[in-house]
Structures are given as C-alpha cells and as structure tokens.
Amino acid sequence: MTHPRDTAGVSVAAAAKLLVERGLADPDAAVVLGSGLSSFADGLGDALVVPYSDIPGFPRTAVSGHRGAVIGCNLGGKRTLVFSGRVHHYEGCSPADVTFSVLLAAELGASVFVITNASGGIDPGFDVGDLMLISDQIAAVTGQQRLPPGTFRMVGAYSERLRAVARSAAADAKIRLREGVYLGSLGPTYETPAEIRMARLMGASAVGMSTVSEVQAAHSRGLEVMGMALVTNVPLPGRFHGTTHEEVLEAGRRGAGALVSLVSSTLEKL
Ligand code: HPA
Is the shortest distance between the CB of 235 and ligand 1 below 6 Å? Predict the structure, then answer.
C-alpha cells in the first residue's frame, strides 16, 4: 500500500533519523496529545524534548493550546514518544501532514499508539471532565484521503485488548470511564444544535475535529491503537449557547492530569 508520505517518503525517514540522533530510538509506545492537553507534558520527568521545528518535514501547528514538541519519556514503565501538539484538517493540512506523527512513530518501531483529544459530549449522560475510551469511529472527514477505497480496513481499529486493559486500570484507580463512538468532524466550527442532533442520530457519543485520520493510518500500519477522549463540553440542544475554544482549553487544562494518569497506568499494565 502506498501512502502519500511514502512517495515523498524521505521525509519520514529523515525525521526518524533526527529523533534517533537525539536519543529517541526504539520507543514502545507513542501518545498524541490533543488541544489544551499539553499540560500533561509539563510534568514529565527525565524527558528529552525535541521541538517540532527541529524535525525535518514535521508539520507545524498554529492553534493555541498546542505546544509543538516530541517528548521522549518513561510513561508507565514504557519508552514513550509523546507528540505534544497536532495539526488538523481544518488548518488546511493534507492527510499526509495530519498522519505524519503516526508514520514517524511506526518508522521508529512503536507498537502501541495512543491518541487523545478534547471532545464535545454528544451522549446526554456525559459530564464535562469525563474520560471516554473510544470503541469505534465515524470519519466525517472521509474523502480527504486521496487513496483507493478500502485502503484502510477499519474493523477492530480500536484494540479490544487495550480497551480491556484501560477499563481495568480505570477500575483500579476508581475513575469513571465512559466508552463510545467518536465522530470526527472537519471543523473548524463547533457544532450547531442541528448537527448535534444529527451526531446523536448517527450513534456518536462524542464529537471532535481530529483523530480519525491518524487512527486510519495507525491501524493500517499495524499499530495497536487506543483512543481516549476528554469531554470538555456537553452541548445539549435546548440549553446550549455555543461552545467556545476558551471553554474547551480550560476544561482540557483541568482534565489533562486524570487523562494522563489513566494512559500511564494503562501502559504500565501492558
Ligand atoms: N465539537 C468539536 N470539537 C470539539 C468539541 C466540540 O463540541 N469540544 C472539543 N473539541
């Protein structure tokens, strides 16, 4: 299978070479941090930080709340590459840019890929601050990937094994862990009340503007994927005046610690 970055492929190889030179070879796992969740990165001890701007070919993020660095650290006893900051389709980024971190993690030999994001809760039972393990996805951005139909086989993309371990880690820590389907919208606007009703009818439990393309690429590369969404807002039709980016960032700052500790304790149990 050919991926757009493979044909330009030198990019990923050159980026991987730089990270190996900086001491980030042979990771066990990669973790991508979503909007406002980079406070996660601030508390990491003995970390090796490589700014995205040092990495050849690495797409840059302009959205506030994203830090923009790869951090090599020990998370839950596993050698982990934390990608702090991501680019989105709504920034005009190509599928190749959006999936660059995934291909880089695969190139360096990571076998577990953890993707996190900030999401709007579509399930009316959700509360701000809830963590949701992603069981499946609806890729409303499909069509962006200029690849032959069927390139990505998505059944079972969110690893049942990792979900079982995450549930057990959450139970140990007495964290209430939700589980459900993530709807990946193109953004950049937050949903209208009509779109929220549509998302609920489609069977989504949470909605956000990222994740789905990365998971397509990760699953197609044979990485074992876990997705964890932090619910930063619950836009219930009827009592909803519009989500703001500030509200999402603030809830992200408050919820990042719980999300990170659950990711860490999940990795520890692997
Ligand atoms: N919609 C889309 N993306 C989001 C939301 C939302 O309500 N909250 C955080 N990211």
Answer: yes
Give the pLDDT confidence score for residue 90 in this predicted structure. 85
Lowest pLDDT segment from 53-57, 110-114, 237-241, 243-247: 237-241
> What is the residue with the minimal CA distance to atom 5 of ligand 1?
120
Nearest to 130 by CA among 262, 270, 268: 262
Q: Given pLDDT bands bounded at 50, 70 and 90, which one contains residue 37?
A: confident
**CA–CA gap between residue 123 and residue 142 (Å, rounded):** 23
| Short-list 141, 134, 171, 189, CA closest to 156 | 134
With 0.85 as the threshold, say if the pTM is over it: yes
Going by C-beta distance under 8 Å and a sequence separation of 6 or more, which residues neighbour residue 102?
Answer: 30, 32, 113, 214, 217, 218, 221, 223
Alpha helix positions (H), 129-179: 160-172
More confident residue, 95 or 35: 95
Ligand 1 midpoint to CA 81 (Å): 25
Atom 9 of ligand 1: nearest residue by CA position: 119
Candidates 61, 92, 213; CA nearest to 145 is 213
- By the 10 Å C-beta count (0-12 exposed, 13-18 middle, 19+ buried), 64 is classed as exposed
> From the candidates 3, 88, 89, 219, which is the catalytic residue?
88
Q: Which residue has the tokens 């589980």?
A: 179
Q: Is 233 a catalytic residue?
A: yes
What domains lie within the chain, and their CATH numbers?
12-269 (3.40.50.1580)
Selected catalytic residue, list 16, 41, 110, 118? 118
| Higher pLDDT among residues 86 and 263, named by residue | 263
